[in-house]
């Protein structure tokens, strides 16, 4: 049965990349699938967090989900730490995943920086927890930005190894489902989850450097458009965005080698729900002095209503807490049902 799971870390500075790469897809998918959208607070603590700021950041992400239009009655919005089974399954996956697999994860290398010895064990094991988040609900689809592709591949590797290691037991207990692996049909417990990597802008780049992804942790505030920015700030950041001096070309192919121009065109396409070639058709031969104000107007038009709704939700933290509590209870029910099977499959005596 198809089911969607995804999450965003409550680490502040929610930006246009998070919106276009992830949250905008979350909203779209809710019409077609049952969805769980998580605020992944246990991922946030893989690096130091201030407790008061963390609480507020959790509410902020929930407010963004709601403001973007996710329906918390039809779907599930919750914060990860409330559902204890995430950590339980993460431990189990730490015992399934191999050191070599995690050693290859590029996000760890980037986030740990030069002093790897000083990184938390949690930062290293982050992908096991992410696999647990997804597979705890036996989710089949995960909308994410392009940067998370490697972690979804690892999630599939973990699912496949678990299904293999315990294939006899899964068959004996009759808890598996038939699934295709290559040409073979196998009986597995965990699905081989597919990433859904969004449309025209799967990776939004920094406004200051078209070769780096737009990120919450970039020290330059001018590098990202935050969902909390007001109209003037958005316009200023787009005006100051780095570009080259050439006008826009007349084909998408000709954007190659011009990362900043390509990024702005992609943002325009994603915001207006069209393709990059349409944008190029409209602006071919135009200077950035023409394109940037058009992009700024579009960004403000799209983001301002979300920002206003986020503010409205944030003014009532009690309401957000109630939504997260209710979502947590509903998520726990699904999680526990699946964990009973996982414990049984593995022989962790719980009867
Ligand atoms: N630049 C981006 N373009 C497209 N999608 C992006 N995502 C993040 N940056 C971009 C997607 O947003 C979702 C939530 O991300 P996250 O907060 O869980 O983790 P992250 O990737 O670590 O976010 P940041 O902003 O890049 O934070 P830092 O600076 O801490 O590294 C994910 O689906 C992600 O793909």
Automatic annotation (TrEMBL):
One of its GO terms (biological process) is tryptophanyl-tRNA aminoacylation. Its EC number is 6.1.1.2. Its main location: cytoplasm. Keywords: Aminoacyl-tRNA synthetase, ATP-binding, Cytoplasm, Ligase, Nucleotide-binding, Protein biosynthesis. A motif ('HIGH' region) lies at residues 10-18. One of its GO terms (cellular component) is cytosol. L-tryptophan binds at residue 133. A motif ('KMSKS' region) lies at residues 213-217. ATP binds at residues 9-11, 17-18, 145-147, 204, 213-217. It is found in: Cytoplasm. Signal peptide: none annotated. It catalyses: tRNA(Trp) + L-tryptophan + ATP = L-tryptophyl-tRNA(Trp) + AMP + diphosphate + H(+). Belongs to the class-I aminoacyl-tRNA synthetase family. Catalyzes the attachment of tryptophan to tRNA(Trp). This is Tryptophan--tRNA ligase. It comes from Limoniibacter endophyticus. The lineage of its organism: Bacteria, Pseudomonadati, Pseudomonadota, Alphaproteobacteria, Hyphomicrobiales.
């Amino acid at each position: 049965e198809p089911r969607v799971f995804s999450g965003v870390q409550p680490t502040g500075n929610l930006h246009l990349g998070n919106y276009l790469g992830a949250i905008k897809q979350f909203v779209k998918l809710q019409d077609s699938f049952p969805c769980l959208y998580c605020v992944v607070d246990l991922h946030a603590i893989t690096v130091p967090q201030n407790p008061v700021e963390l609480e507020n950041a959790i509410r902020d992400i929930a407010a963004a989900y709601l403001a973007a239009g996710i329906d918390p009655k039809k779907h599930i919005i919750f914060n990860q730490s409330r559902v204890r089974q995430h950590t339980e399954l993460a431990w189990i996956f730490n015992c399934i995943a191999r050191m070599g697999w995690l050693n290859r994860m590029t996000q760890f290398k980037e986030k740990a920086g030069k002093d790897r010895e000083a990184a938390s064990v949690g930062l290293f094991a982050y992908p096991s927890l992410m696999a647990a988040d997804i597979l705890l609900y036996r989710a089949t689809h995960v909308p994410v930005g392009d940067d998370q592709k490697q972690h979804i591949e690892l999630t599939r590797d973990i699912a496949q190894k678990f299904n293999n290691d315990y294939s006899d037991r899964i068959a004996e207990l009759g808890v598996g489902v038939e699934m295709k692996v290559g040409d073979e049909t196998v009986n597995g417990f965990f699905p081989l989850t597919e990433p859904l990597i969004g449309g025209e802008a799967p990776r939004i780049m920094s406004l200051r450097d078209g070769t780096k992804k737009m990120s919450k942790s970039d020290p330059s505030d001018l590098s990202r458009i935050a969902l909390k920015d007001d109209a003037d700030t958005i316009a200023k950041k787009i005006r100051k965005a780095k570009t080259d001096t050439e006008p826009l070309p007349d084909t998408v192919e000709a954007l190659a080698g011009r990362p900043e121009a390509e990024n702005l065109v992609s943002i325009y396409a994603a915001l207006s729900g069209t393709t990059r070639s349409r944008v190029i058709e409209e602006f071919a031969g135009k200077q950035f002095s023409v394109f940037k104000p058009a992009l700024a107007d579009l960004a403000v038009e799209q983001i301002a209503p979300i920002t206003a709704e986020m503010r409205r939700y944030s003014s009532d933290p009690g309401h957000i807490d109630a939504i997260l509590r209710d979502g947590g209870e509903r998520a726990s029910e699904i999680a526990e049902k699946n964990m009973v099977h996982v414990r049984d499959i593995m022989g962790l005596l719980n009867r």
